[in-house]
Specification:
Blueprint (H helix, E strand, L loop, with lengths): L7 H13 L4 H12 L9 H7 L2 H8 L3 H13 L3 E4 L7 H4 L7 E6 L9 E5 L6 H17 L2 E4 L5 H11 L4 E4 L13 H9 L1 E5 L11 H12 L2 E4 L8 H10 L3 E4 L10 H8 L3 E2 L4 H7 L9 H5 L21 H7 L6 E3 L10 H13 L3 E4 L3 E4 L3
Helix pairs in contact: 1-2, 3-4, 7-8, 8-16, 10-11, 15-16
């Protein structure tokens, strides 16, 4: 769809979504109503709105200043953010088929053909266990190595490790945000979001500078689950937000995979409840591959997923010699740490790509060599 103020349909659809809010079934019903009456391509005059809509609905639409809609479009153009609407041919059918499908999506990066590729979402808590970190990273990496596309929410914890694992495999990963793409929510994950936008894409239902709220994240979870063939729950307590995504996935007819855990631990009580209710136990990545290989034989390479990386000669500049099995990139980062505390910006001069740097930092954290602190700062714990 042409991104311009002159595109009347685009203006009308953004107005509709803004008036009734993200995740609104009322917005979807009104879209269908307006499409059936062929008024989407015409400016929404007061008389037209009042004649065709109920007073409360008409008032909501009329209360929106068109200049605000133009500002949203301008912000997208300036920040190279694409807009996909429910009217577009490249709008994913997986989303179109849910009752509360988003009327408008804002995208930074490249959204691969959702309906023809195996997307898998990985979710879990922000305060994740050490085992959960390794599981999310390893699963994200193996799925991406096989050719699958990893979807998550770019939050701290499980999301970060799942995205980082996919990036470490040089695969594609998708982050569905609970705020606008240009809103700097979680500054410590800013670099991760930038890297994802270059190796997949960022997706949001919210205009570029929309702030996050406590309500926006549960609303966006339906998009995470709907884009995917299945959702993996790394670990979940009885009050975990991951249970919302799992419930939505089940309602949408998607698969739900759960890593079993110790019943006595709080962070697995929600997980085990899902298993009791019929979720698929996930013991290793093969459980996912076996579920979808016949449907996507050209896009899932199991052999590649489990192929161990060949040892490579370490850069001659490395000054320290570690006796632990780190990757080449992790060793390069470790051997260039010259202070107890550092940030990603301190390492940008290294001869590593953004995804290599992020995966190296995740690997070092998993091994307990560094620790992530608030504000995007890392602490060297194994000096």
């Amino acid at each position: 769809m042409l991104l311009s103020k002159e595109n009347i349909t685009l203006v009308n659809l953004i107005t509709l979504q803004q008036a009734f809010g993200a995740g609104s079934i009322k917005a979807v019903k009104l879209f269908n109503f307006m499409r059936e009456r062929n008024i989407l391509d015409n400016p929404l005059s007061k008389d037209t709105i009042k004649n065709l809509l109920q007073p409360k609905d008409a008032e909501k639409l009329l209360s929106f200043d068109t200049q605000k809609i133009y500002k949203i479009i301008d912000d997208c153009i300036k920040n190279e953010i694409a807009i996909i609407t429910i009217c577009d041919a490249n709008y994913p059918e997986r989303l179109r088929n849910i009752n509360d499908c988003p009327i408008v999506l804002y995208i930074k990066g490249e959204l691969s053909d959702v309906d023809k590729l195996p997307y898998i979402s990985i979710v879990g808590p922000r305060k994740i266990s050490e085992y959960g970190k390794k599981a999310a990273f390893s699963l994200g990496k193996r799925l991406a190595k096989s050719g699958m596309i990893v979807v998550s929410g770019a939050a701290l914890g499980a999301d970060t490790y799942a995205h980082s694992g996919a990036l470490a495999a040089k695969g594609k990963t998708i982050a569905v945000l609970g705020c606008g793409i240009c809103y700097d929510y979680l500054p410590e994950n800013r670099h991760l979001r930038e890297t994802i936008s270059k190796n997949g894409c960022l997706i949001s239902e919210y205009p570029p500078y929309t702030a996050a709220t406590k309500y926006s994240f549960p609303i966006r979870n339906r998009i995470i689950s709907a884009l995917s063939l299945g959702t993996v729950v790394i670990e979940a307590s009885l009050k975990s937000g991951s249970l919302i995504t799992a419930r939505l996935a089940n309602e949408q007819g998607r698969d739900v995979f759960v890593i079993p855990g110790n019943p006595s631990l709080d962070n697995y009580k929600g997980s085990n409840a899902l298993l009791r209710d019929g979720a698929i136990p996930l013991l290793n990545a093969s459980d996912i591959f076996n579920q979808y290989l016949l449907k996507f034989p050209e896009h899932i390479d199991i052999e590649k997923a489990f192929l161990e990386e060949k040892d490579e000669r370490i850069n001659e500049k490395i000054k320290k010699n570690l006796d632990i099995g780190l990757s080449k990139e992790a060793k390069i980062v470790y051997n260039n740490l010259n202070s107890q505390k550092f940030t990603v910006d301190d390492l940008l001069s290294l001869d590593l790509s953004d995804d290599q740097l992020l995966s190296a930092l995740s690997e070092l954290e998993i091994e307990g060599i560094i620790k992530a602190l608030p504000g995007g700062i890392y602490d060297l714990t194994n000096n």
